[in-house]
Write a structure and sequence with these properties.
Radius of gyration: 18 Å
Order of helices and strands: HEHEEEHHHHHEH
Structural class: alpha+beta
Number of helices: 8
Shape: globular
Strand content: 5-15%
Strand order of the largest sheet: 2-1-5
Distance between the termini: 26 Å
């Protein structure tokens, strides 16, 4: 079989709700990450995106590219220093601006993160999944006040984590993070989301 029994039940269950009852709220999964972090890329490409494709009806995803970056106030703007250098800061900013501009952002970011060249593939990935959004629009955001403000929001979201993040990728599920949640998400996010959703519908 393509899926073991638990996955099969989950896929069937995600498409069926008891008559005359509202479906339970979706499972909220948030990924705090960096665009050039190898472990982050692996989790996004091999676990998060495929799971979301199969379980989009019962799962909501929030992506927060910032991670271990440092933010400093400089006049009315903010400057950012990233763990993997300037390219990572640019990658974080591009992905943030794409999320602000395209309803196909997750597809575009998956395309970028699964590429051997995250930054070099960005424009091609945008054209592939959302040709109505112009690359110039994304770069205006990246290089302007809008991108600066959006990245500041990412910094605030990351800094507000409780417990504070210690590494990336850092996963929260329904707003919570524990070692157990992290381990289960890394091992099989699909099984974790299914289990949580099915329990909430009992």
């Amino acid at each position: 079989a393509l899926f073991p029994q638990v996955e099969k039940q989950c896929l069937e269950f995600s498409g069926l709700h008891k008559p005359h009852t509202a479906p339970a709220p979706g499972v909220e999964v948030a990924l705090y990450y960096e665009s050039l972090c190898g472990g982050c890329r692996e989790f996004l490409v091999l676990e998060l995106f495929p799971t979301w494709l199969m379980l989009a009806e019962i799962m909501n995803v929030t992506l927060v590219p910032f991670g271990n970056a440092l933010e400093k106030k400089n006049g009315s703007k903010y400057t950012f220093e990233c763990q993997h250098g300037e390219d990572e800061c640019k990658g974080n900013m591009i992905e943030t601006c794409i999320m602000n501009s395209s309803k196909y952002a997750f597809f575009i970011i998956f395309c970028m993160e699964s590429s051997s060249d995250v930054l070099g593939s960005a424009e091609t990935c945008l054209k592939l999944y959302d040709p109505d959004v112009k690359w110039d629009t994304i770069m205006s955001c990246v290089n302007g006040d809008q991108g600066n403000k959006l990245m500041h929001l990412n910094a605030q979201m990351t800094q507000a984590l409780q417990p504070p993040h210690e590494y990336v990728p850092w996963v929260t599920v329904n707003g919570k993070h524990t070692d157990d949640i992290q381990d289960k998400a890394m091992a099989s996010l699909f099984n974790m989301v299914c289990s949580l959703y099915m329990v909430s519908n009992l």
